[in-house]
Amino acid sequence: MAGRNNGKIRQYRKPLNINLGIIIFSVIFIYIVICVFLYFTDKHIMGYEVKTGSLSVGNVYQGIALRQETIVMSTDSGYINYYAREGERVGSGKLVCSIDESGQLKELFDANKAEDTQLSDSDLSDIRSEITGYMNGFDRKQFSGVYDFKYSLEGTALKLANINVLQDLQSLNSSASSLITLCSAPVSGIVVYSTDGFEAVSADQITADMFDREKYEKKQLINNDLVAAGDTLYKLSTDENWSIVIQMDAERAQELLEEDYVQVRFLKNQFSSWAKVNVLNNADGNTYVKLDFNNSMITFCADRFIDIELVTKEEQGLKVPNSAIAEKEFFLIPKDYVTKGNNNENGVLKETYTENGEVTTEFIATSIYYETDDDYYIDNSILELGNNLVKPDSTDKYTISRSATLIGVYNINKGYADFKEIQILSQNDEYAIIKSNTTYGLSAYDRIVLDAETVNGDEFIND
Fold first, then answer.
1. Can you give the residue range of the structural domain that contains 392?
2. Between the chain's N and C termini, which has fewer beta carbons within 10 Å?
3. Which residues contact 49 (CB under 8 A, 6 or more apart)?
4. Does residue 178 share a domain with residue 111?
């Protein structure tokens, strides 16, 4: 036993045991590695299914309203009291306000002597309409408009009360009455109780900075305020003809100018009206469109900034992404030189030479991609410049020398990239609307290459 323990100990080597599981795992691993390699090295072509649709064109604009406005100034000092409602039409010589030098009219309000004023159903309807109109046009980003609305609503209520107070002027003593100046409208027009500095601005003086509502300042004329001689009392919009100026790019402005008239929807009340289109290229280098109206001025007489939507006809057709659109050059072949082959396929008779130098013709099958009254557009990868074509049943010849470019997309319905001519009806930054069911174009549900730069003509597509 002792002798046996003194022997050398050798490490036992396990034999390599390759079983079926290791073989299968190795094959799968190699397959995955090859697939990943091919994925990252292969050319990826994405398809797109063509569908009918229309373009979403941004037709909402913020406009600046321009009217014929006359500012009426005060000739005396005192407390002002209004009797005509804002937005009301007054005739020439009609009472609009009074200037109270003594302050007795103001004391009537301060002493609450007009508490029993009752508003008629018509008065309540006007106030309700004013509130509804403001709610429809409320913009959270322009919260300062809340204060303008507050002053306007307070002024409306006070003006209704002032009418009753005016009836009590006869009860004041004559000396006090002589200190009250009645102010009548110098001309007929719509009464507005605010100013903003745009009253004398013309359309050709509009600049891009004027559309910045954060810089816009509007002075509200408040009932019972103290005014001095030369201060503004109110203003009158004296003409029903008025304009809205909007800013847009020159190309879009030219499109509107060609239409001459455009339908406009006012977002404040969803009212629609037709406007005459004029394009202005002002001194600041920008393009503006002036929309001229002959109605609805009274509805927006107190608004300087008006949000509108241009109601234009939407083009309907096949909708394709702009990335799929490509240009390709083709030979122009007279129609008389295109014939039919044995399989009823289109082609041309190309002049060739035999080994003996004899002149003969060879039928070259080719697809037609577009046609005009005189010519067919033929693929230039099959023929070459300078090739002679023979007219069927004639000895006339035509040497290929002319070419032209078509706009189109690559159709992949048959498994290869086949160029199809398209006719663009309208286009925005992302999509184009093209005419459907043309002779050499696309139809709904055709599959095209999403990115035209990733494919060549007649290239086979592996989906």
1. 319-454
2. N
3. 445, 446, 447
4. yes
Residue 67 counted as domain residue: yes
127 and 241 belong to one structural domain: yes
Residue 429 Cα distances to 73, 182, 224, 320, 408, angstroms: 51, 60, 55, 12, 17
CB 411 within 8 A of CB 446: yes
Query: 153-210 pLDDT, tens per residue?
Result: 665 666 666 555 655 555 554 445 567 888 999 999 999 999 999 999 999 999 999 9
Q: How many CB atoms lie within 10 A of CB 80?
A: 25
Cα dihedral 32/38/40/46 (nearest 10): -110
pLDDT for res 374: 92
In the listed set 311, 336, 370, which residue is the last one of a domain according to the structure?
311
- Proportion of the chain in helix, strand, coil states, percent, rounded to 5: 25, 35, 40
User: What are the structure tokens assigned to 7, written together?
Assistant: 């022997």
**CA angle, residues 413, 416, 417, in degrees to nearest 5:** 90
What the block records as the tokens of 388 is 């002679």
- How far apart are alpha carbons 424 and 375 in whole angstroms? 21
Q: Is residue 28 part of a domain?
A: no
- Are the C-beta atoms of residues 44 and 454 closer than 8 Å to each other? yes
Q: Are residues 304 and 337 both part of a single domain?
A: no
Q: At what angle do helices 121-136 and 145-166 cross, to 10 degrees?
A: 170
